[in-house]
Amino acid sequence: MVACRAIGILSRFSAFRILRSRGYICRNFTGSSALLTRTHINYGVKGDVAVVRINSPNSKVNTLSKELHSEFTEVMNEIWASDQIRSAVLISSKPGCFIAGADINMLSACKTLQEVTQLSQEAQRILEKLEKSPKPVVAAINGSCLGGGLELAISCQYRIATKDRKTVLGVPEVLLGALPGAGGTQRLPKMVGVPAALDMMLTGRNIRADRAKKMGLVDQLVEPLGPGLKPPEERTMEYLEEVAITFAKGLADKKISPKRNKGLVEKLTAYAMTIPFVRQQVYKKVEEKVRKQTKGLYPAPLKIIDVVKTGIEQGSDAGYLSESQKFGELVMTKESKALMGLYHGQVLCKKNKFGAPQKDVKHLAILGAGLMGAGIAQVSVDKGLKTILKDATLTGLDRGQQQVFKGLNDKVKKKALTSFERDSIFSNLTGQLDYQGFEKADMVIEAVFEDLSLKHRVLKEVEAVIPDHCIFASNTSALPISEIAAVSKRPEKVIGMHYFSPVDKMQLLEIITTEKTSRDTSASAVAVGLKQGKVIIVVKDGPGFYTTRCLAPMMSEVIRILQEGVDPKKLDSLTTSFGFPVGAATLVDEVGVDVAKHVAEDLGKVFGERFGGGNPELLTQMVSKGFLGRKSGKGFYIYQEGVKRKDLNSDMDSILASLKLPPKSEVSSDEDIQFRLVTRFVNEAVMCLQEGILATPAEGDIGAVFGLGFPPCLGGPFRFVDLYGAQTIVDRLKKYEAAYGKQFTPCQLLADHANSPNKKFYQ
Amino acid sequence: MTTILTCPFKKLPTTSKWALRFAVQTKTKKTLAKPNIRNVVVVDGVRTPFLLSGTSYKDLMPHDLARAALTGLLHRTSVPKEVVDYIIFGTVIQEVKTSNVAREAALGAGFSDKTPAHTVTMACISANQAMTTGVGLIASGQCDVIVAGGVELMSDIPIRHSRKMRKLMLDLNKAKSMGQRLSLISKFRLNFLAPELPAVAEFSTSETMGHSADRLAAAFAVSRLEQDEYALRSHSLAKKAQDEGLLSDVVPFRVPGKDTVTKDNGIRPSSLEQMAKLKPAFIKPYGTVTAANSSFLTDGASAMYYEEKALAMGYKPKDFMYVSQDPKDQLLLGPTYATPKVLEKAGLTMNDIDAFEFHEAFSVKFWQILKAMDSDFFRNYMGRKNQGDQVGLPPLEKFNNWGGSLSLGHPFGATGCRLVMAAANRLRKEGGQYGLVAACAAGGQGHAMIVEAYPK
Prior knowledge:
A: N-(1-d-carboxylethyl)-l-norvaline Dehydrogenase, domain 2, 3 domains, 11% strand, B: 6-stranded mixed β-sheet, 15 helices, membrane (chain A), transferase (chain A), EC 1.1.1.211 (chain A), transferase activity (chain A), FA_oxidation_alpha_subunit (chain A)
């Protein structure tokens, strides 16, 4: 049911979403190109305005690659040299994307710091030339304008953006462990003010066009058009170009001023920032906040502040220099490599490796309107799936429907939806207590309690009413799918879909296939998951699949550590300072102690001593006293409605005291405690790959980071082994094995990697 | 007696007796009459002069205007009031005191208090809805004689207290003790006093219609100049029609305490140069829809009298069609969708139509229709293969020849009747047989209707 209820576990990483290439319909327009020999950029002249079109070949998005860079330089030089041209418009030929950022492969390919720094300096140079262009250049933005794309846009004299949902601006480099390395750290503060610029650079957040206009990031907005003489997208691009040309002409004729009228608040902020004392306070405040949030695990945010500071305090020459150097340093860090690896993994997990399913799922039915069921319903209805939410009781159903409504309504409050859209989306949901309408369902996802006999009963009930093609998916965190499928008349149509709670926030979906699951069933499940906006890992069936199985030994170690007398608060701080978004003790409370107990018992039976270490009796006693975690108000901590501060549950003392074990001093330093947890996690993950539960290390990393909150700065268990060396980890494991026994025995695959240092999970 | 067509695709036998009567004509269809369905004939219709809001009508209430239209109608047709079975009016922005404005106006105009009346609303095609509701009542045998009309008074609109203030006032009403009252009053905040204006925006999309029109202009690549040219045409033609006395549906209205209003006051032919000076009204600073190429806020009322039998003169309204589409991107495309459909239903083509009366809320509407019928839009969005060629384009020389909503004005609830009467009067004056009326409305809806001259 709830494998990991770590709320906001990756909120910092949500902006990853923007980086993945979405299913934009991107046509490659040939346009009126002056020089067809160029592959990334071409331009035509309309009157005295050059229209420069960016179009990376064979890709859904435009990225700033070396080729694009050099062609852009060439084109701009021609434009500057031409007597006929008085101004220029910069526009993409892809309707969904202006420029999505720098080519990450180009950065990954760099071997040395100098190479990266040089890339940054080259970009700085051309953008500086662009900024000082004697002929006004208008950036016409439709679709994502991110990273280097935004840095390019803010070097232009004027920016016009479409007010489309797809149009987002931002500098998400920080999410890849880097910084805006093409003058962004210097230009952004001047353009939107230091506080707003720092916010953009440190969070990497996406800014929608209307907000960007208010901030002064863009100068004009263009409304997207509906159907007309041409398809909406195509005509919108043409319209954007037409409007941009008008403005380019106006700028060249000096009829339009590129200067913007600032509001009162903005003027005041700008004034305040001229006072050195205020500036110092701002830097200090931001630095403090960053230190607190990153716990020193992510070097990029501090360097960003540093570079911005250098630019403002010591002038832009120093700023640009510092930017390029720090950019180089950051790209070479392990953290950046880990984050870029995650990015690649995420792109991979956004594809359906099973191909297109034979039949699109249009009607979905969900059994059980609990937290999970309702969460699944919420992410389905807003993608246009007609969804039935069925529960056994009216109160349960009511609660579930309220949850869906609340989820949608929160989006209205954040202005991501209009109230009208909310209502029309909500109308996709039908709440009911019976099986009416199931004869039309293309897929049924059950999210009932984690009880095998109950799951068997529902499966039989459902199979009596659904059509032949309908897929039965089970949302379970630990029950083997093949056991659930044992009572099915059509096991090829049974599959596991393990969602993570809260479903609307957690990006991961773990899909579990049994030996009997047909390829088309898998394809359908992945297609539905992708539609719901999930990153998907597909694993083989087995006790605990991948995610739960990795988490279980770590949890066993958590119990052991608590038994050894470590305070839950201390344990939490140790785990969070290692990079986990949620402390280990809090995690148990969030997951639910009863669930943890279930899983520990079930998996303990199967895996025996490898899952040993902690005494499950601790969980049993907690459950018997009603300390189920957050849901019952008490667990390791006390939870009260409306109270943010968490106090330790003092009633736990007696339980912990009764199970107390003496700590082993040689393996009980803070670092050892952290590594005891992490190495068990990593060892089990590698074991899953060894046993074929996992198909690829990339999926293992994505599953661990996006589902379980494995420290993103380490890039996932496999990347962690690659970056920090298998030998180091095996050494650690052996040390702990000596102290505790077999649960720390390194698995064969890990040992192999340690024995041959050239072996890497990622080549 | 002829009957109206409601069944679209059946062709009349060419040997029908009407074929002989219309032997001289070359229409694809001789008449739209259809056996076994009761005939509906428009006898006559009138309207008050349409005035810019905030001018001579500004102190009136909507039912005053509606009443004036009704009395004018009675005067014009000299029909005894008692024969009217039912009265229907359309209106958009309702005066809350007279929410069934049809009834208040009818009583005030001296109709029998035994004659029921109701009010309908369907945005800018409210009067169309009033008319077609009446047609339905006659065709189904419920009534024999109907008066339909529409009214809109934009000089006064219901501005409300904010929801918070209203809630407070209602709660105060229910409070029993002084203590309760005081505790309620203590919740009062100054911002409660901020008034709430009737939404000028589409409820579902929060987009104003002018804004949508501007996007429409861009989607169909209609230039500012084209829009201004058409607006100028509308004003010039309206002026000409007014001067030549062609706008015979206008009845003078003696405004209490003021001069008698005898003609529309929004007709202002200007020059392209002057129009070019205006700044865009909605999408600033680069949009193309301006005050000069949009219709203005108007006060006015209209009424039409029709019955089952032919009495004086007559126009058979009729085959009609309502359509609706996406209220965001196709807000104003109603006529585009409805026109080919209604023609198809009636078995006619564009060439058969002698008088086009299209509602032109914005100048861009005209161009949009023209461009849409001639483009891929037809195939892509209206699911038609080359239907555009079959339907053809509305010829400009038959299009809104006596001005339109741009110049005469557009009192939302009253425009429908004006369109039908303009088509009818043009048929009479120019001797045509079929008129086509079409209009768009908020909510992405549209209406089209064919009017046939009653056989002489």
